[in-house]
Amino acid sequence: MHVKHIQCFDCGKIYSKDQIVFQCKCGGSLDVIYNYKEIKRKITWHLLRKRPFNHWRYREFFPVTDNKNIISLGEGGTPLVKSKNSDKTYFKLEGLNLTGSFKDRGTTVEISKAREFNIKKVACASTGNMGASISAYCARASMKAKIFLPRNIRKTIVKQIQVHGADIEIVRGPYAAAEEKANLEHKKTGIYLMGDYPYRGEGEKSVAYEIIDDIKPDYIFCPIGNATLISAVWKGLKELKICGLIKKMPKLVGVQAKGCAPVVRAFNQNKEMKLVKNPKTIATAIACGYPIDGHKALKALKECKGKAIAVSDNEILKARRELAKKQGIDAEPSGAVAYAGLKKLNLPKNKIKVVIVSGSGLKDLENV
User: Fold this and answer.
1) Count of structural domains within the chain
2) CA 153 to CA 160: how far, in whole Å?
3) What is the per-residue pLDDT for 1?
4) What is the DSSP letter of 87?
5) Read out DSSP for 310-348?
6) From CA 229, how far away is CA 263, in angstroms rounded?
């Protein structure tokens, strides 16, 4: 492992790499800092490509000390499918991960790190997909899980979580209420928290590694919920640049539903991010009123000179139907958000674009 320490993104406070910490005392989100000189000396594309094409191909960039602690269910290695309508547009099919979404990439790292800490039980607040992923990986690791869910959770997701044996508590209110309840449980009992904390973002970086392993895009379209995915993708791209594995950096396009778009509004108005108290969107998996990694996402979008766009529920549904009927790709509403953003944004046709389709359509068979 090449981790140096953990550092607060906001105030700069440094924590030991062996310390169990979820959020800085200042309230800021945390970041894992690596010794990139060591990594650069050890890896090349030639070495990486000798390994199987999956998430753990890039294990030097993950904070797991010993490979024997890795809990994996074959995540990653998802296909990059070219659009039949354009040789410049590709779809990264994250719905083909084990539990049907990109969340498995973060979960495999979170659970593996929890195993190193000898954790036996975890708690998590989720809009659905993360809870399903954590429940599956906890079953694999022989850990117990308690999942806090908002009131508008879909029945199919609840059943997916239940089948793996996790305890469920449905909370009155939106995702923020579930998050508050999970944090309270942690304070009362000391239970290990999982969610959009530093180790999850470290796992989700592998989306970026795999894309660059395949092609060199000009733009990557990414949905934004808690903003962990888009900030992780940008960190992954920067790590590849630092280690000499990429020269030209793509730009990011962050996409949110209009009914819950705090990052998009803050970026486009050049203002502070504000809480959306009651998110209203069919894209419930990204209905996070105050994204944990929102400030990271804003910095990433500014650094890459990217774009941010909000799409309506009608545009999301239209994008889902078009993906399914014209491309053969069914995505849940949140998984179609990035494609809705691509359709709405007028970019040069000669630019290579990758659209992250973050979740399977089997997650939501109602909003079709």
Assistant:
1) 3
2) 12
3) 64
4) T
5) EE-HHHHHHHHHHIIIIIS--B-HHHHHHHHHHHHS---
6) 13
